[in-house]
Structure formats: C-alpha cells, structure tokens
Amino acid sequence: MNLYGDAIKALRQVILLDERVRTTSLDLARIGQEVADLRDRVSRLEGILAAMMARPPQAATARERRRLPGPPDQAS
Predict the structure, then answer these.
(1) DSSP letter assigned to residue 41
(2) Cα separations in angstroms, 33 against 25, 36, 40, 43, 72
(3) For residue range 35-75, what is the model confidence (pLDDT) as tens digits?
(4) The model's pTM
(5) What is the gyration radius of the CA atoms in the chain, in angstroms?
C-alpha cells in the first residue's frame, strides 16, 4: 500500500506543479503586455518632450506684454 500512496502523492505534486506553471504563464503574459503598454506610453512622452524642446521659445506671456516698460537708465 505504501507504493500506491507514494504514487498518488507524486501525481498530486505533478498536478499542483502543472497548475503553478499555467498560472505563472498567464502572469508572465499579462506582465509582458503591461511592459509593452508602458513602453508605448514612454515613447509618446519622449516624442512630446522632443517636440517641445525643438520649438523656438514662445513670446512673452500676456502679463509681461501688459507691463509698462521701466524708466530708461540715466547714465552720464
């Protein structure tokens, strides 16, 4: 009877290991998809930053345009 008990115990462990492998496989696929999504988001952000850095500086803000010029320097 001990031989049958060992065989059943081994089969149970194989079944549990198979389930773990399946679960791990699904987790790995999900993580891979999340990494791909993050890579796409980072690429878009890099594109936005590159476009902003390539732009010429914008004109003064509306508040700076409304400000009156200061008195001229009076150097003698």
Answers:
(1) H
(2) 12, 5, 11, 15, 63
(3) 999 999 999 999 999 999 898 877 666 676 677 777 777 65
(4) 0.54
(5) 34
At 1 the pLDDT is 64
Phi, psi of 59 (to 5 degrees): -65, 170
CA distance 72 to 67: 15
The position carrying tokens 């773990």 is 20
Cβ of 63: how many Cβ atoms within 10 Å? 7
**H helix intervals, the chain:** 2-54, 62-66
Give the tokens for residue 31: 């993580």
